[in-house]
Design a protein that fits this description.
The chain has helices at residues 6-12, 15-33, 95-103, 116-122, 133-139, 157-164, 184-206, 216-229, 235-249, and strands at residues 44-47, 55-57, 73-75, 109-113, 142-145, 169-172, 176-181. It is an alpha+beta fold and 255 residues long. The chain contains 9 helices and 7 strands. The chain has one domain: Class II aldolase/adducin N-terminal domain (L-fuculose-1-phosphate Aldolase, 3-Layer(aba) Sandwich). Strand 5, helix 6 and strand 6 (169-172) form a beta-alpha-beta unit. Strands 3-2-1-4-7-6-5 form a 7-stranded mixed sheet, with helices on both faces.
């Protein structure tokens, strides 16, 4: 299918897909706003509603603060374009995301970053330490995956899927952070918490003093409370305020 303008793209897709495009574009803008982007070298993907196994991902080469709802590229499970786009797509960048989507039908959005704090903690043998309230949320659903080089090989998928299991936070050793969520909002709020836990840990370690760790029973209790009360971190509670924040400065992500 060929389309060149935002209006033409909107006419080609369902209302549900268009709303997903708007939310995903907003997520890209927010990742840029909070300083988590790595030029053009990370990705956020979203599963399109329906039985076709289609996904949305960023056009390769655009900065995150340039991405709009209509510029997002719709691909199949093999990263082939479903709707024509003037922009290229990076199949290698979709390997990690497609692995998660294949294994987790409950996941709509996968968010991956290479932030300084995230990579720093991913290089520590201890991983995330239970030293902050933010870390207790992460530890309630955290998995680790060992570094196997630049993630462009399909052969890495089975191991990554096995390591992730049912967790919603994945630390990619020597690489970065990944979150998955039942919505774009959930994936974003999980990453906000993951990133905060890493920054706090690096800052606390830099202080040089002995660290006080949260009792394991409290960490376990936080995990149970999250599942009972909100089914997770509850990104839907925060998302509307983040959208208002974007709209006050630049609402072009909706185009």
């Amino acid at each position: 299918m060929n389309a060149t303008t935002p209006h033409e793209i909107q006419q080609l897709v369902s209302p549900e897909e268009w709303q997903l495009r708007v939310d995903l574009a907003a997520c890209y803008r927010l990742v840029a706003l909070y300083g988590w982007s790595d030029l053009v070298f990370t990705h956020i993907s979203a599963r399109v509603p329906g039985p076709e196994h289609h996904f949305l991902i960023n056009p390769y080469g655009l900065m995150f603060d340039e991405i709009t709802a209509s510029s997002l590229i719709k691909v199949d499970k093999d990263c082939n374009k479903v709707i024509d786009s003037p922009y290229p797509v990076n199949p290698a960048g979709f390997v990690i995301h497609s692995a998660v989507h294949e294994a987790r039908d409950d996941v709509q959005c996968v968010l991956h970053t290479h932030t300084r704090a995230g990579v720093a903690v991913s290089a520590q043998k201890c991983g995330i330490l239970p030293i902050s309230q933010q870390s207790t949320f992460v530890l309630a659903s955290l998995a680790y995956h060992g570094y196997e080089g630049v993630a462009f090989r399909d052969e890495e998928k089975p191991g990554l899927q096995a390591d992730l299991g049912r967790a919603n936070f994945l630390m990619l050793r020597n690489h970065g952070l990944l979150t998955c969520g039942r919505s774009v909002a959930d994936a974003f709020l999980s990453m906000y918490t993951f990133e905060a836990a890493c920054k706090i840990q690096i800052d606390a370690q830099a202080g040089g003093g002995e660290l006080t760790q949260v009792h394991p029973q409290i960490v376990e209790g936080v995990g149970k409370a999250m599942k009972v009360q909100t089914g997770g971190l509850g990104g839907a509670f925060v998302w509307p305020s983040l959208i208002r924040k974007l709209d006050r400065t630049d609402a072009s992500y909706k185009l």
